[in-house]
Write a structure and sequence with these properties.
The chain is α/β, with parallel strands linked by helices. It has helices at 10-21, 32-41, 81-86, 107-115, 156-167, 178-199, 203-208, 210-229, 242-247, 250-266, 275-281, 288-302, 307-329, and strands spanning 2-6, 25-29, 43-47, 52-54, 58-60, 69-74, 95-100, 121-125, 128-133, 136-141, 145-149, 172-173, 236-237, 240-241. It has 2 domains: 2-174, Rossmann fold, CATH 3.40.50; 180-329, Orthogonal Bundle (N-(1-d-carboxylethyl)-l-norvaline Dehydrogenase, domain 2), CATH 1.10.1040.10.
Amino acid sequence: MQTVVVGAGALGSILGGYMAEAGEEVTLVGRKPHVDAIRAGGLIIEGMRGRHVVRNVRAATDAGELTSANTLILAVKSYDTTEALASLRHLRGKVGAVLSVQNGGGKDEALAETFGRDAVVGAASIVGGAMPAPGRVIHTAEGGTWIGEIDGRRTARVEAIADTFRKARLPIEVPDDIRSVIWCKLNQMVPAAALACVTRLHIHEMYQDRSLAALFVELAHEVAGVAARLNIPLVDCQGFPIKTLCSQPFDAAVESIIARGRAMQERGMTQVRISTLQDLERGKRTEAEHVIGYVVDLAAANGAAVPKLALLYRIIRGVEAARLASARAH
């Protein structure tokens, strides 16, 4: 099975690297320093599974060189989506399935405009990673990935993609309603990203502080209110049981977040940092607009109240703008 990963950052390299190591034909499309390092010495994956050097993975910088693929996985930063999809328009009708493991919202609609609605498979992933240097990524959280046809049908192509993940020992599930799972990821990602950017804490640290855990639950309720306005039911997924979190008594929900933080620490998952925070600390553009801002904008358009989330979003965008202005000045 021929798999192409466009956006070979931390997540894209981890997924594609493990698939290649399992014997799949994989091409990673990424930035030149990363591609050059992979070509010279292989892709180095460290972290949850020890150290791996994957040498049988192809790497390219120009998406225009691609001619076809059974599966195309889009993993670029949300703000790079428009440019990335423009470089892939020549593949319309030449890709069996295209899916996005990006953090932001509206991603499947963007894929449909480029490849046609029939090509799109819904997806969500909470695999954690970081890229400390070109050619090297750190697998910080095993997490999972969910895929499914947008209309809920069970199809051979979804099962084939799932088998590719299983061969690579990447946790994968095919839910009944992928839309609900995508929103459950947003309901996990948005509060976590907002709080991480403001506190600068690792995830396990943030979860174990009672006041921050309480604020996480409050933010999750705000995001759930937006999903309700869109008639998207929440479900419990392994790693983020959002339906239970938002329906149980408040104090019990807070305790569950604290317990999640303790469990992460006990499992050695102490280096997990939200990618939005990683970018903010590096003075780079973040995905806040496409993740947190996406929900804030939807709330405003659909009459849902998200006062705490909106305030945190304004702070994060202000910090990001100030950091970028300072970088340009120097």
